[in-house]
Amino acid sequence: MVQQRQMPRFDTAKLRDNAMTSIRLGVEDFERCRAAGGEGDPARALSAIRNLFAGVLLLFKYKIATCADDPSDAAALIFNAPEVLPHSDGDGGIKWIPVGKFKSTTIDVGTIKKRFEAFGIEVDWTVVDKLQDCRNHLEHLHPAHTLGEVADFVAELFPVLRDFIHTVLEESPAAILGDAWQIMLLHHNFFVDNKQRCDDAWAEAGVPEAMEPWLEECKCPECASTLLAPSQENLDAGDTVESNDKRFQATCIACGHSLLIAPLMIDALEKAHAYDPRDGDEPTLEGCNQCGRGTFVILDQQCLWCAAELDYAECEMCEEPLRQEDQDKGGLCSYHAHSYEKFTRED
Asked: At what angle do helices 12-33 and 147-163 cross, to 10 degrees?
């Protein structure tokens, strides 16, 4: 006998309250983990991200629940449905019927995305996915080394919450989040202002043009913040990143840590070009014969640092692609260079 589905008890208003509470707790934990004067509690970084991520998902689920007027339908949108199995209809056909009860667990991120798509609800999932990755990342690393990363995500989360609450829920963010909203607003403005100042300063620092995207990927190794500014001392001395990479430093606005910027940029580039030879992969990045830096992209046959290119891109005889090590063969591949050398010796 087919079991009828049973809906778990569900309170939409309670879901909304829980969402707001989680967001407020997340902001409070964020404030406590970065308190000035050495009084902050780094361990609260993980708690901040956990609460913020949970609060955002609860808020999303609340919106989904409000798409249905009937409480049973609202619960069906939020809780994981029972398994649907085929049954005979008695006339040689089949019908698909839910078997068992609705589960006590609610839908995950993937299902929330599908529900939003079905109801035409738009949100910036890029930031939410990054927030989830940050939460997972912090689960396995000591929070003290990721305070800057948490600060970055709080700043990025601000416009997502602002737009969702104002546009989708049609409510006032300041009214429903209170002091937590003001804290996020101030921090967001601080982040945006300093990010613009960093970008403007780097524009004067002589970063190789093709390496600029990898400068954007750089994070402070101490706190993981993206707020890195070029050293004023280097700028005053007329140094450039391109020509003086052995001494040009960056300083983290979030924690004050200073370090050479070039190795950080190259490390970001190498991570993007990582490969596993055990899977049959081949390297896509190598050292440049012109400048000696590991920034020569094999596929593009160009160095991202010094812009060096190949004099000979393909063999003049067979059109086989040539690499840096083939450039001293006069535009020939190894085979034809050897054949030509052998012919000239015999002649």
From this structure: 140
- Checking DSSP bridges between strand 302-303 and strand 228-230, what pairing results, if any? unpaired
**3-class state of residue 46 by DSSP:** helix
Nearest to 60 by CA among 118, 113, 11: 113
Q: Per the structure block, which two tokens stand in for 256?
A: 């004050």
Provide the residue count of the chain: 347
- Short-list 103, 105, 78, CA closest to 11: 78
Q: How far is CA 95 from CA 7, 73, 82, 86, in A?
A: 22, 21, 15, 6
For the record, the structure tokens of 120 come out as 């035409």
Name the residue with tokens 């990898």.
Answer: 214
Coil, strand or helix: which one is 314?
Answer: strand
Q: Output the furthest CA–CA distance in the chain (Å, rounded).
A: 94
What pTM was estimated for this model as a whole?
Answer: 0.71
- Structure confidence by residue, pLDDT tens digits, 167-197: 999 999 999 998 999 999 999 998 999 999 9
**Coil/strand/helix, residue 49:** helix
Could you please report the per-residue DSSP string of 166-235?
A: IIIS-S-HHHHHTHHHHHHHHHHHHHHHHHHHHHHHHTTTT--GGGHHHHHT---TTT--S-EEE-HHHH
List the chain domain ranges: 12-195, 203-272, 280-346
Confidence of residue 218 (pLDDT cuts 50, 70, 90): very high
Residue 298 near residue 308 (C-beta atoms within 8 A): no
Kindly report, residue by residue over 266-284, the tens digit of the pLDDT: 999 999 998 888 887 888 8
3-state SS class at 106: strand
**Angstrom distance (rounded) from CA 101 to CA 3:** 8
Contact 3, 100 (CB under 8 A): yes
Amino acid at 308: A
Burial-class residue 13 by CB neighbours within 10 Å (0-12, 13-18, 19+).
Answer: exposed
Beta strands 228-230 and 285-286 are unpaired
